[in-house]
Amino acid sequence: MLLSRPHHSRQRRRALIAGVVTVATAALGLGLSTQFASAQTTLRGAADELGKDIGVAVSYDQLQNNATYRNIVATEFNSLTAENAMKWDATEPSDGQYTFTQADAIVNFAEDNDQTVHGHTFVWHQQTPQWVQNLSGTAMQAAMVEHINTVANRYEGRVDSWDVVNEVVSDSNGAMRDSFWLRAMGEGYITTAFQTARAADPNADLYINDYSIEADNAKSDRIYTIAQGLVNQNLLDGVGFQSHLILGQVPSTMESNLQRFVDLGLKVRITELDIRITMPADSSELARQAQDYERVVSLCAELADCSGVTVWGLRDGDSWVPGVFPGEGAPLLYNDDFSKKSAYDSVLDALGGDGTGEPPTSDPVTTTPPPTGSGCTATLSVQSPWNTGATYSATVRANQALTGWRVTWTWPGSERISNAWSVQGTLTGATVTGTNAGYNGTVAAGQTTTFGFNITKADGSTASVPTVTCTPA
């Protein structure tokens, strides 16, 4: 049996490095690192401490147009999956005519916010253009190879892992899905897809992804057989378990089933987690949902070779579930108003964080907004203070149409920025000069955009809120 290649995501390496830095700074009397201090109050911090991914499937439109959505995605998750922007119909709608605007924006956002990307997906029987489905076997294979090469080459070194093939087994008795891929190319299309992806991006982890394979059943048995063959050719690194679950139906055999794939030398990953409820959902059902979430995430947290968990959307209203399962919904961690559900707290608990979801000290302190009249104004607020640091949120308001903005302020005390998202520039000294990231510089008059950062405070004093100057850039 061949074991999968050793490959560690940037996120895991960052967590390991952070652990070393924390020990070193503590020995020097400088206090805990921001990452570890914040680990008890955010999903991202807790997952970083475990060396796991906590991911979310993101919408390009929401990232572009909803500042609150962007801020939560940046602060609560260390891994992103494009919900639709990397699928075939989004990247190559016509033969040889590629468009990467949406996919590029999501990858750029992840890089700006120090997040990894799990790519989804190269080969699927849905959301594949009709021109592909109409091809003959030889032509279809050529198109598949060319498509995988083009997309994988574009994001080589920027996407950490890929769902190479998606949903290749049917729901009935473990048979192969009767897709246009199978009819035109036979089962060999799976091997060809993995061979192509391996050659196109040798350092990315390659996954086979499917639903209803969480339990030990006929469908997961067939995935296991396929996985064995791919492992023997050194073409497979992991198995993705979508985990679109129903309330109260987390399989009793889920842990042992994932373990048998780990025993093949593979990573496992919960790739599309949601837990749907018959609507309207009452408080007891939401509490049961929280318990189900905690069980699934705890399973991954405790399994060394589980690379992480991705929830399939941010808010209940963003979910695909009601459109496919009428009368069912409320499957995610956030309500439509961006408030956290009990399921959020349970996931935080499962990752080893503080399940209250509350900061450990006083309420946030916010500045009084500076006077309007200039091209833009900006405010800072303290969101999550702790003994040696704090998380800040910042809002930039456009008083005129902006194509870029610049903010500056001077810390009055020992506060220093340790990491930031959705802003760039000279950020680490006493005087901060920040400019917009590539995706949030254009702001219509009267609209806002956000950025955020963590600070350390060597003297342990209360986090201050300096006045910010904002100018168009």
TrEMBL record:
Species this chain originates from: Glycomyces harbinensis
Active site: 272
Protein EC: 3.2.1.8
Family matches, as SUPFAM superfamilies: (Trans)glycosidases, Carbohydrate-binding domain
Catalyzed reaction equations: Endohydrolysis of (1->4)-beta-D-xylosidic linkages in xylans
Lineage, broadest ranks: Bacteria, Bacillati, Actinomycetota, Actinomycetes, Glycomycetales
Name by which UniProt lists this protein: Beta-xylanase
CBM2 domain span: 369-473
A single BP term in Gene Ontology: xylan catabolic process
Gene3D superfamilies, A to Z: 2.60.40.290, Glycosidases (3.20.20.80)
Taxonomy, superkingdom: Bacteria
Similarity comment: family membership: Belongs to the glycosyl hydrolase 10 (cellulase F) family.
Keyword annotations: Carbohydrate metabolism, Glycosidase, Hydrolase, Polysaccharide degradation, Signal, Xylan degradation
